[in-house]
Amino acid sequence: MKYWLIKSEPHKYPIAQLQEEGSTFWDGVRNYQARLNLLAMKKGDLCLYYHRNEGKAIVGLARVLREAYADHTADPAENWVMVDVGFEEHFSRYLSLAELKAHPLLSGMAVVKNSRLSVCPVSDAEFNEVIKLTHLQDG
DNA sequence: GCCAACGTTGGC
DNA sequence: GCCAACGTTGGC
Predict the structure, then answer these.
(1) Does residue A60 sit in helix, strand or coil?
(2) A72 sits within 7 Å of strand B by its CB
(3) What is the pTM of this model?
(4) Which residues have CB under 8 Å from A12's CB, separation 6+?
(5) How far is the CA of A1 from the C1' of C6 (A)?
(6) Exposed/middle/buried for A34, CB within 10 Å: 0-12, 13-18, 19+?
(7) Which of A8, A10, A52, A131 gives 20 to 30 Å between its CA and that of A117?
(8) With a 7 Å cutoff on the CB, does A7 touch strand C?
(9) CB A56 within 7 Å, strand C
(10) CA–CA–CA angle A101, A30, A124 (5° rounding)
(11) Do the beta carbons of residue A47 and residue A62 sit within 8 Å?
(12) pLDDT one-digit tens code per residue, A3-62
């Protein structure tokens, strides 16, 4: 089981929409590093869900339902791929990019270091810390 | 709206 | 195959 982080434009496909629809295909990746990450995803892997631009926070959790297959929205001559992901959780507490940057365990995350990579690997330690921080109780 | 960082392109 | 120039992206 591996962990990932997938980025979405909140005005294009927010976590709330995934929550409503239950699952979706993750298309539109046109970057070779991100493509390699998509190809490495296994069914059942968990993906942190990140809102970029106006969101800039980790907002939830998704799970890989179907491993990489041809992205039908791409030029067929180019072998771009997509995966299917299903909704798992919409965090009640978001973890902002600023918080990631300020956290000693999380400031080295690929999402922080390479803001333009839309599909990032996440280490076990990073994942566990994110889950811990997004599930802290008030008080 | 600006700009730094990154990826891609094209000339050599 | 290198690298400068350019375009795009995303955070601020």
Answers:
(1) strand
(2) no
(3) 0.94
(4) none
(5) 41
(6) buried
(7) A131
(8) yes
(9) yes
(10) 40
(11) yes
(12) 999 999 998 999 999 999 999 999 999 999 999 999 999 999 999 999 999 889 999 999
